[in-house]
UniProtKB/TrEMBL annotation:
Pfam families associated with the record: WxL
Superkingdom, natural source: Bacteria
Protein name: WxL domain-containing protein
Keywords: Signal
InterPro entries: WxL_dom
All copies of domain WxL, residue ranges: 76-191
Length: 195
């Protein structure tokens, strides 16, 4: 700190002395002003997330009265689920449904899918939902697929109305009683037919 003070005083003295013996000096202008620019590269590292199925299925309580002929139960909503594909790969996926055989009687477990819609408006085009009634068995049945024919499909978040479930083709000779089946919906990390 002491050296700095000395240097400052000497510099000030020299400037004062110079001003006594020197002619005035004026700054020279060139007619243009200085300018410039600076640039940089910003890099954003966007990491892929996961493929998830959110939500739960609604409890189903179906009923019908035997009448001496083949019958079907009423239909009830299976509920809705949310599919989120945040992988950022366009690899696609499929949603399948299966059902165990009815305990104690014959009949078919039938699902009629509802609809699919974007949850976030910036998502890709909506996945493809099958149309019409689908008979469920222990072998998974495809009800929705994304990315099988186009990578611009299925990335983002979607709400899937799974539609209605009913038991059909209950024979005329069925016994009265309570029958059950377990319905399972599975999200697969590849479009149907691709592994």
């Amino acid at each position: 700190m002491k050296n700095t003070k000395k240097f400052s005083l000497l510099t000030a003295s020299a400037l004062m002395a110079g001003s006594l013996f020197s002619a005035p000096v004026f700054a020279e202008t060139t007619g243009t002003t200085g300018g410039g620019s600076a640039s940089t590269t910003a890099t954003a590292d966007i990491k892929g997330g996961s493929l998830t199925l959110n939500g739960s299925l609604s409890p189903i309580s179906l009923s019908q009265t035997l009448n001496g002929s083949q019958i079907s139960t009423d239909a009830q909503s299976l509920g809705s689920v949310e599919i989120v594909d945040a992988r950022g790969t366009g690899a696609g996926y499929s949603l399948t449904a299966s059902a165990t055989a009815l305990s104690g009687t014959h009949g078919n477990v039938v699902l009629t899918p509802g609809s699919v819609a974007k949850k976030d408006t910036t998502s890709d085009a909506t996945p493809t939902l099958v149309s019409g009634a689908q008979t469920l068995t222990t072998n998974p049945t495809q009800i929705l697929t994304a990315g099988k024919s186009s990578v611009s499909e299925g990335k983002g978040s979607y709400t899937v109305d799974l539609g209605s479930l009913q038991i059909t083709d209950i024979p005329a000779n069925a016994y009265a009683g309570s029958y059950s089946t377990t319905v399972t919906v599975t999200l697969n990390a590849a479009p149907t037919g691709q592994e």
